[in-house]
Amino acid sequence: MKNNIGLIGCGEMGSALARGMITWGGVDPSSVYLYDINAERKGALAVELKTNTADSVADLIPHCRLVFIAVKPQDTEGLLYSIKPLVKTGQIFISIAAGITINYIESCLYPGTKVIRLMPNTPCLIGEGTIVISTGDAVTDEERKEVENLLKSLGITVRLPENLMDAATGLSGTGPAYVYLFIETLIDAGVSVGIRRDVAARLVIQNVIGASKMLHSNTVHPAELRNIVTSPAGTTSSAMLVLEEEGFRSCLIKAVREATKRSGELRLG
Predict the structure, then answer these.
(1) How confident is the model at residue 267 (pLDDT cuts 50, 70, 90)?
(2) Alpha helix locations (H) across the chain?
(3) pLDDT tens per residue across span 4-62
(4) Which of 20, 44, 170, 235 counts the highest number of beta carbons within 10 A?
């Protein structure tokens, strides 16, 4: 079993995990085993990354100390029960399935099983993601740090207690969609005032990149940076007044709260 890594599920996020760990994280591909119900998808990823493949989960589990579960939430229960007889002491099961709690995973396997739960977002696909991590009681600090180190090539990891995982889903897991809608709307606004769409897109996307980098390189509150460009009775102050009057802040807060609520409704365990 050694320190081999198993990945069950080679969809977009599962593939991103494998690529990140191997291509950017320096993991030896010969220590990685892939399984997916779609043999063609599994095979293509294995050829690309030069990893091992498994013909079934029963073929993968005995070889791997770390097992990433990257299947759809609705497929997780059946998968967990199918691997229960194969679980060995010391193995760590790492799930990215939304709404599937650590307690639920343990109940499908065995009490005391080492379980880690992740909530990644789609920018992990380009190494710029955010991964929220919660650990079960059986996982040691050393084991958590080991997994965090494996994930660092996909972006940043943020530790939160599991009771905040729904909130992390509403804010971070869903977060890129808010940004995309914001960008899309700003581009449309540029077009509405006479700027060609492709030019508006370049301006807006670079604005978002630049503003994000300024926040990333400073410890100041976003409001302080906003105030720098908000002159009395100027164009920015006029724009900010409209956004406040139309409930821009409250709308975003309501969106995050609703996504958090929905995540809780989908929770198992």
Answers:
(1) confident
(2) 12-19, 39-49, 57-60, 73-83, 102-108, 141-151, 165-168, 175-192, 197-216, 222-228, 235-245, 248-265
(3) 999 999 999 999 999 999 988 889 999 999 999 999 999 999 999 999 999 999 999 99
(4) 20
Confirm if 64 and 4 have CB atoms less than 8 A apart: yes
* Nearest CA-CA partner of 1 in 54, 46, 66: 66
Number of structural domains, the chain?
2
How far is the C-alpha of 217 from the C-alpha of 204, rounded, in Å?
20
Residues 188 and 157 in one domain: no
| pLDDT (tens digit per residue) in 99-149 | 899 999 999 998 899 999 999 999 998 999 999 999 999 999 999 999 999
Q: Are strands 114-119 and 92-95 parallel, antiparallel or unpaired?
A: parallel
Q: Residue 201: phi, psi to the nearest 5?
A: -65, -45
The domain that contains 238 carries what CATH number? 1.10.3730.10
Continuous segment of H or E residues that includes residue 159: strand 155-159
- 38's enclosing H/E stretch is none
Say how far apart CA 151 and CA 129 lie, in whole Å: 10
In angstroms and rounded to an integer, the radius of gyration of the C-alpha atoms of the chain is: 22
> Does the global pTM surpass 0.85?
yes
Name the 3-class secondary structure at 100: strand
Co-location of 134 and 24 in the same domain: yes
